[in-house]
């Protein structure tokens, strides 16, 4: 693996935190690019770097919402090339495997089901990955984590109910000084839960950079205070707290980690204000949600990816329930 990729895919902040090379090996970079995954090429290389340079083997790696195993492959390939002594079965990959991958990755649709797609994509790292079919909402709480979770790729927190279930489990399995959480949904204004929880978690850890696609990584210095765990797991925030925390989070990211947002055509300010609109929606303040969204920049609102916001924010109680996952 002597050759290196010509373009820098990794964020400078992550390279500095991990003390790793700025470029992935050329053959790995090509492999990661060719995967069927809903992660971006930037995210794939950052996952690889974490598996290779951050993972010590003290705990397990959890790929939460692995779909067809694309993200699992990136993490496991990093582990394969890294120094951790124990590698077998250490990347635990959770999903319902109930059709998401078959629908998303049509070129692999001839496979029998999502689990078959997972096995096909991860075949070269089969000894390292361990797929687990479960419903995160019902079954994650009782899933054993005897070694703790050293790296968590959070790619299934697509409703408040899912975020609460995932957060509660991960919060109970932190390895001080080691655990890193990968926050996949920061570019989704409709999922503001992580953005308004982050200021509380920063009391126990720090952002170590992330992937250049609005994906920050948080490393824990210590366990989360029990009162904070209870507050986040119960989503016990006032509307004012949610709004203040969302704005504080995006202002901090804009100030200290703007490279993570550089590829987007919009600024993190728009994401922040669109997220504020969703804080109103979650609180049942439907008029406030629509009004707050009007303050978001026109270019952001005109994007194809923003169409869902227009629809949901005008949708009242039914859309609120969808975001909550009820
Ligand atoms: C955005 S996709 C993950 C993409 C994947 N990481 C990749 O590399 O392509 C989110 C995944 O979360 C899974 N998911 C959503 N709700 C779930 C639940 N309640 N239990 C288990 N998996 C769930 C979906 O099946 C889906 O595969």
Indicate the CATH architecture of the largest domain: 3-Layer(aba) Sandwich
| Number of discrete helical segments | 16
> What is the number of strand segments?
7
Q: Evaluate the radius of gyration.
A: 19 Å
What are the segments in which pLDDT stays under 50 over at least 5 consecutive residues? none
CATH H-level homologous superfamily name of the largest domain: Vaccinia Virus protein VP39
- Classify the fold: give the CATH topology of the largest domain: Rossmann fold
CATH class of the largest domain: Alpha Beta
Principal-axis shape: globular
SSE order in H/E notation?
HHHEHEHHEHEHEHEEHHHHHHH
Strand order of the largest sheet: 3-2-1-4-5-7-6
Number of discrete domains: 2
Q: What percentage of residues falls in helices of 4 or more residues? A: 40-55%
| Strand composition percent | 5-15%
Q: What does the model show?
A:
The chain has 326 residues and is an alpha/beta fold. It folds into 2 domains: 12-233, 3-Layer(aba) Sandwich (Rossmann fold), CATH 3.40.50; 239-324, no CATH class. Helices cover 46% and strands 12% of the residues. The protein is built from 16 helices and 7 strands. It has helices spanning 12-18, 26-33, 41-54, 70-81, 100-104, 114-122, 136-139, 160-171, 193-201, 226-233, 239-256, 268-282, 286-294, 298-302, 307-313, 316-324, and strands spanning 60-64, 91-95, 129-133, 149-154, 180-183, 205-211, 215-220. It has a 7-stranded mixed sheet, covered by helices on one side. The longest helix has 18 residues, at 239-256. It is globular, with a radius of gyration of 19 Å. The mean pLDDT is 94. Bound molecules: S-adenosylmethionine. S-adenosylmethionine (SAM) is lined by residues 37-39, 65-68, 70-71, 95-96, 100, 135-137, 155-156, 158, 162.
């Amino acid at each position: 693996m002597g050759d290196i990729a010509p373009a820098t895919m990794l964020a400078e902040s992550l390279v500095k935190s991990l003390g790793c090379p700025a470029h992935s090996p050329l053959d790995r970079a090509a492999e990661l690019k060719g995967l069927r995954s809903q992660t971006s090429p930037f995210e794939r290389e950052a996952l690889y770097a974490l598996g290779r340079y951050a993972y010590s083997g003290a705990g397990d790696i959890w790929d939460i919402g692995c779909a067809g195993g694309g993200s699992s492959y990136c993490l496991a390939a990093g582990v394969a090339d890294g120094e951790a002594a124990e590698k077998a079965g250490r990347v635990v990959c959770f999903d319902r495997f109930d059709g998401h991958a078959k629908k998303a990755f049509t070129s692999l649709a001839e496979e029998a089901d999502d689990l078959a797609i997972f096995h096909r994509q991860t075949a070269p790292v089969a000894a390292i990955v361990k797929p687990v079919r479960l419903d995160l909402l019902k079954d994650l709480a009782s899933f054993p984590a005897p070694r703790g979770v050293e790296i968590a790729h959070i790619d299934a927190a697509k409703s408040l109910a899912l975020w609460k279930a995932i957060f509660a489990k991960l919060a109970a399995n932190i390895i001080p000084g080691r655990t890193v959480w990968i926050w996949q949904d920061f570019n989704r204004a409709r999922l503001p839960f992580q953005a308004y929880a982050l200021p509380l978690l920063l009391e126990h850890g720090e952002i170590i950079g992330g992937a250049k696609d609005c994906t920050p990584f948080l490393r824990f210095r210590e366990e989360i205070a029990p009162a904070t765990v209870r507050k986040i797991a119960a989503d016990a925030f006032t509307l004012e707290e949610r709004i203040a925390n969302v704005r504080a989070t995006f202002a901090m990211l804009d100030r200290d980690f703007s490279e993570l947002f550089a590829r987007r055509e919009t600024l993190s300010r728009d994401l922040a204000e669109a997220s504020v609109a969703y804080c109103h929606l979650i609180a049942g303040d439907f008029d406030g949600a629509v009004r707050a969204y009007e303050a978001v920049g026109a270019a952001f609102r005109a994007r194809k990816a923003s169409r869902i916001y227009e629809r949901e924010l005008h949708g009242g109680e039914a859309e609120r329930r969808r975001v909550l996952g009820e």
